[in-house]
Amino acid sequence: MGSAVTSVLPPLSLYIHVPWCLQKCPYCDFNSHASETRTIPEQEYVDCLLEDLRQEVGLSQGRPLQSIFIGGGTPSLLSAEALARLLAGVRQEITCVPNMEITLEANPGTFEVARFAGFQMAGVNRLSIGVQSFDDGCLQSLGRVHNASQAKEAIAAAKQLGYGHLNIDLMHGLPHQTEAMAKADLQQAIDLAPDHLSWYQLTLEPNTLFYSQPPVLPDEDVVVNIQDAGQILLQGAGFEQYEISAWSQPGNEAKHNLNYWRFGDYLGIGAGAHGKVSCLLDNQMVVKRRVKLRQPKAYMQALQPLSSVDAVTPLDLPLEFFMNVLRLRQGVEESLYAARTGQELAQVSALANLRQRGLIAADRLQATELGWRFLNEVLAAFEH
Question: Which one of 86, 248, 314, 363 has the minimum C-beta count within 10 Å?
Fold first, then answer.
């Protein structure tokens, strides 16, 4: 590598996976396992999470945590006491920046809502509420266990408790959904005034019930109309799109997500959790992806729950990097490429051609309007 490459370790976040749900949704391809009884082995699982973190903590190489994201599954199935013990344990194992963002994914059911105050006392300062739709018919077709009024009550409860940061997770392109239905859904989310909205299209993923038994989805023209109409609604309400499926009020972008899309590092603990960790070897940047055992039982019984570690090859680094940063509306500064990969930007041969075709901005690593519209084609250019 040329002398122009400065190698500095990226910021570090922590992802914690809680793999249980009340029931498996037909569209979900995440590592989640149904637990209808609402009782999960939380004490044992928290012990295992903290042991997992102890085994990972050396990978921080002295870096403090910038953010924590607790996802699933349905992490709000954890009791407030278990969550408090988990977060206190994390702080004992690793330094955390002051007042850092701690996000918990939560479902709108009354069972979880009753725990919101306890989650807040445990240190959670950002809730991501999995609403998906405010239409009871759509919720039923998605296999959700809550209804629209419970979703609204959950958001009202979170606001009343003073959660300053609140994300609503909403999908469009749902079975039998019309453009008018999708707009009504989005308008209801906007009216509840969250500071962040994740708004994305339902896709049929392999290994899901919907993939093997596909429902009737709106055709492509309807989906495009939904997206265009949604953009107008969101912008009119002061939301800015900072990532393909993420909108926020100015200054309220999810810090955890931003670190992820800027090709930052994150430790992953929990059943099936993924992590990305960089290290410097002879001043060369080496990026490794780490995956934990998927099955909760196997994970909890393992002395070492690591399932695989793969170094990203130098040939694959350009695609991995651009696959993340080009999802950001504003892209990133050119200098970030060398900082995150240890490679010279000049070595990325595809870039000049993409710029010539007006798909990537001239002075930033940022997709143009045209590039964003054909992002898959843009990314394919970085494959070797």
Answer: 363
DSSP reduced 3-state for 330: coil
- Do residue 21 and residue 88 come from a single domain? yes
Residue with tokens 């306890």: 118
* Residue 340 and residue 223 share a domain: no
Dmax (CA) for the chain in angstroms is 60
d(CA 138, CA 134): 8
Which range marks the domain in which residue 237 is found?
12-259
Count CB neighbours of 306 within 10 A: 14
The string of DSSP codes covering 150-186 is HHHHHHHHHHHTT-SEEEEEEEES-TT--HHHHHHHH
Residue 281, in any domain of the structure: no
The pair phi, psi for residue 72, each rounded to 5°, is -165, -155
Question: Do 29 and 371 form a contact (C-beta atoms < 8 A)?
Answer: no
Q: Give, in degrees to the nearest 5, the angle at Cα 67 between 75 and 55.
A: 75
Could you report the per-residue pLDDT of 252-284, keeping only the tens digit for each? 999 999 999 999 999 999 999 999 999 988 878
- How far apart, in whole angstroms, are the C-alpha atoms of residue 163 and residue 320? 34
Q: Residues 130, 105: contact at Cβ < 8 Å?
A: yes
pTM recorded for the entire structure: 0.95
Q: Which of 157, 67, 46 is nearest to 112 (CA)?
A: 157
The band of 5, judged by pLDDT with boundaries at 50, 70 and 90, is low
Return the CATH number at 355.
Answer: 1.10.10
Q: Tens of pLDDT along 92-122?
A: 999 999 999 999 999 898 678 889 999 999 9
- The residues pairing with 311 across neighbouring beta strands, listed in sequence order, are 288
Q: Which of 168, 84, 73 is nearest to 126 (CA)?
A: 168
pLDDT at 7: 66
Phi, psi of 307 (to 5 degrees): -95, -45
pLDDT band at 132 (very low <50, low <70, confident <90, very high): very high
